[in-house]
Each structure stands twice: as C-alpha cells, then as structure tokens.
Amino acid sequence: MLTITRTIAYRVDVTTPDLPAPDDQHVTQHVTQHVTELGSGIVKRSTRLADGRELIYYDDPDTTLPPERSIDARETAGRPATATMRRDVLTGDWISVAASRQNRAFLPPAHLDPLAPQTPENPSEVPSRYDVAVFENKSPSFGPALAEATADAPAADDPPRGLDDLAAPGLGRTRSSVGRCEVVCFSPEHEGSFGTLTRVRARTVIEAWADRTAALSALPGIEQVFPFENRGEAIGVTLQHPHGQIYSYPYITPRTQQLLAAVEREGADLFERIVEFESAGPRVVLSAEHWIAYVPFAARWPIEVHLAPRRHVPDFAETTTAERDELADVYLRLLRGVDALYGDQTPYIAAWHQAPVNVGRDALRLHLQLTSPRRAADKLKFLAGSEAAMGAWIGDVPPETSADRLREAIAR
Fold it and tell me: Which of 37, 164, 186, 277 could link 242 by a cystine bridge, Cβ 3.0 to 4.6 Å?
C-alpha cells in the first residue's frame, strides 16, 4: 500500500470557532499536522492535544472537512500517573489497578458529550469537527509510560522485563502498567454504533484499526493490540457516543494464551481447519469472498458470532485493501442482522482478536468474537456461580438455533 507523508503547519485564531481566549483577547497559535495519505483515499492527520496526548484524524475519501483543524486550547491538569500491575499468583494473570478510571465520564447529556467536537459550551476531547478521530485515553488502564522512553512518552520506573519476567513465580509481584489505551470515535454524532455507520465511514474506521495496529505494535514493550467496541448499557457502556477502544498490552492476554495453548495441542493449522469445518456446517450466517461469519460449534453466549478472514492474517495491519473493502460491507450486514433479531439495539461486545506482536503470528488468525448476553427480547444471561466462579459454562441456546435466527435476521 502506497503511503505519502508530509507535514503542514498553519495558524489558528483560538477565539474562533471553538473556544474563547481568556478575556476575549485575540490569540493566534501555530498548529502542526503530520499528514499521511492511506489506502482507498483516506487521509490521516496527526496532531496533539493540550496535554501532549496524540490525536489523529482519519478523513473519509469523500470528506467535506477542510484540512485545517482547531487547536486544543483547554487548560490541562496533566496526565495521571501510570498504573501498577499486580500478579495473581493463583492464575498467573496480571491485574492493572488504575484508580484514575474512577473519574471517567458516566452517561453525560448530549451537550456535554466528551467525544463530540468541541464547542464553547463543551470543552470535549476533540477540538475540531471530524469524520473519525483517535486519541490517547485521558484515564488509561495502561500507560502513558512505556517500557522504554520514546519521543512522546516517558519510560516507566518498573516496567515488565519481557515475557519470561512476567511468567516468573512469586508472591506480591508488581510491575508498571506500561502500554497505551486509545479511543476511536466512529462519528461526530452523539448516538450510534459501528452498525449505524455508512459504508464509507465503516471503511475509514477499518483503515484506522489497521493503521493503529501497526503503530501500536511498534511501541516498546507492547505484546498485543486489541481493538474492540462495547455497545449498550447492559454491557457497562458509559458513553452513548459511537466509539470503540484499542488496548495495547504489555503482556499476552489470558484469552490469547489459551489460544496459543490450543494451537500447541491441536496443531499449527488449527484456525485453517476451524474455517473449513464451519464452512461445511450448518452454523454459517454470512459468506463472502474474503470473510466468513459463523456461530461457533461450542458457543457460550446466547448470541455469539465469529467473523474471520478465509486466508491466514495475524492482524488488521496485514489485511489487503480488498479484504478491508469487503469487511466494511460484511461487518455492517452482520451488526444490522444482530439488531434485527429483536427489532431494536442489542447490547454486545465486539472483540477483535489479533495475534501477539512477537509470538504465534503464523498460527493465530485475526477474528471477531461478537458476544451478547441477550437470550430473549426481554431477558439477559447473567454470569452467575458456575460461569463466573468456576469458568464452567452452560449454554442457553443451541448454536444451530442461534445461527438459524441470525440468518433470518440478516436476510430481513
């Protein structure tokens, strides 16, 4: 994919149009953008927020926005300290204790939406009107410090010292929660989700996922990059604005460690065989040239769909333009079909599993795991004793029945 990067600088009067200058004084500041032309006519514009966090605009190929963007003229209190991870000696899992997350916004009214473009009444996180915007989370679970210092992030005092260090035994072990957490704003509108986007906008978001996967994978100490979308208050969503997140972990997550163990047990061609097995079975809900969506053979949730590329691809950064183009159509059809099941918005977690940065890339395949606790129009599945405490799942809906319902809903 051909990319062309250039830097532009321009002057912005901070008295117009977004935020007034102190005492209504005329203040002009310089803004620098690093501009990259990505695939399919999408343009990337990188800049900074007032506290130094990275902000990236991704412009649709048919955007009506001007190239100039307003500066972030807010007064800032600085960024929170990097959290600390604690190792659970019983499981080997690392738990990040990020107290700053307690202060994040909780279901604010539309006029105070922190992901909407800034106005004089709403000093939000994004200074300008945008198509798609990505920025570093103000209250991250991981970061802002990294395992090693970079041009825009300090080094942590006690970072993980590689995967062997993280796997070492011992009580009371801690490490700094290095990494990065980013917010991906799908649209400037206050309400919606990925499934409500236009096909063009969906394609821009997919390009952003691919671009950020590549960039975050290159940061020091990052072992895995995870794009996801939480949708619905039943899932715990605290903002109605259409958005997702990207977590960049300093370790390989427990779920991915299980996948690596499955490959070790079943063979390096496991994901290829899964796609072949499901393609020939009764649980396929969508089939396209490059992608296939199916309800997995041993689905845990009342609604659970996996969407995978037909060829081996470890992460979004390795997908082709043709695969990204088709995904925009297939993913929108899938999400809209999930909503058509009961005729209204279905809460879900859309988790894009990607291979780790440094291991398992020839075996672990990029795939979506979309799950919802909705087991009927007015009923939710709650993880009670057996699932929550013992990890022993009991399915409420046979996977074949779920697939039948989803196919019918997608057809509608």
Answer: 186
